[in-house]
């Protein structure tokens, strides 16, 4: 989703295959994201559940500590929704 679309969105079959073999999606523009974000995503996308960080552990991650508070995220999402809606209407 960091690429503005689901990974392997062009082919559901490819998406299922890559997930089944444990292939982790990559960022198209990796330099766009902070090292903290990359580290957070690596912890989040561990395939083996017993090795994956828990939600409680992820909430304590340094990247989460630096994100916008909940109200800020709501405002950001509303802005993105309005922007994409306007773009759709104007095309």
How would you describe this protein?
By secondary structure, the protein is mainly alpha-helical. It has a domain at 34-90. It has 5 helices and no strands. The radius of gyration is 16 Å and the shape is globular. The mean pLDDT is 79.
SSE arrangement:
Blueprint: H1 12-20, H2 35-44, H3 55-59, H4 62-65, H5 70-90
User: Roughly how many Å apart are the termini?
Assistant: 23 Å
Helical element count? Answer: 5
Order of helices and strands: HHHHH
Rg computed from alpha carbons, rounded to a whole number of angstroms: 16 Å
The backbone outline, from C-alpha atoms, is globular
* Beta strand count: 0
Report mean pLDDT, rounded to a whole number. 79
